[in-house]
Specification:
transmembrane, single chain, mainly alpha, Four Helix Bundle (Hemerythrin (Met), subunit A), 7 helices, 188 residues
């Protein structure tokens, strides 16, 4: 059963990655961020992510400890760092707001974590996913989580075009000053 769940998860990943690549390469195609809340892109994105999370949850539980990772790495490093990055990523999500987080233009945010990174939520959750995979010690769950981390780190690229269209000069000035991920300010 775990193999079937893993293949289902890979299928959803394949769809999400294909849509992300198409959004990045084709200026006339927009998947992320979705063009409208009631669009097929919005619904297929969020349902795909829901099913993918269910697959990861299943494998995290039913395939728990199926590969050897030393106990001290799992419980003293991976688990606390998973919790910390999840907590910080959630704070970044709250700072951005529900609508902005879900691909709807609500308001421009450049405060909180967003003073230091244009994409703190993506970075923190991508790191969280890797630590979660190490903690559960499941090759299948870790594989799906690593692919999800990759998706999170690639999502800003098509999103930037959308942000430029919606927020114009404000976003372009912000983009000049604040790094995409975490790092030194461009003006430092």
């Amino acid at each position: 059963m775990n193999e079937a769940i893993f293949i289902i998860g890979l299928t959803f990943h394949g769809f999400l990655l294909l849509m992300l690549v198409m959004s990045s390469k084709n200026e006339h195609f927009q998947f992320w961020p979705p063009p409208k809340k009631n669009s097929w892109q919005y619904h297929s994105l969020w349902w795909s992510i829901r099913f993918l999370v269910m697959c990861i949850g299943w494998l995290s539980y039913n395939d728990f400890s199926s590969i050897f990772v030393p106990y001290w790495i799992r419980f003293y490093i991976a688990f606390p760092l998973c919790l910390a990055t999840f907590f910080l990523g959630s704070i970044a999500g709250l700072q951005l707001g529900w609508r902005n987080t879900h691909g709807e233009a609500d308001c421009f945010v450049d405060t909180g974590f967003y003073k230091y990174s244009r994409n703190p939520q993506y970075v923190l959750f991508a790191v969280c996913f890797i630590f979660l995979g190490i903690w559960v010690a499941s090759a299948k769950a870790l594989g799906l989580l690593a692919l999800l981390s990759f998706w999170y780190l690639r999502a800003p690229f098509p999103e930037e075009k959308w942000l430029e269209q919606h927020y114009g000069e404000i976003y372009l000035d912000y983009k000049e000053k604040v790094p995409r991920y975490f790092g030194w300010s461009k003006n430092a």
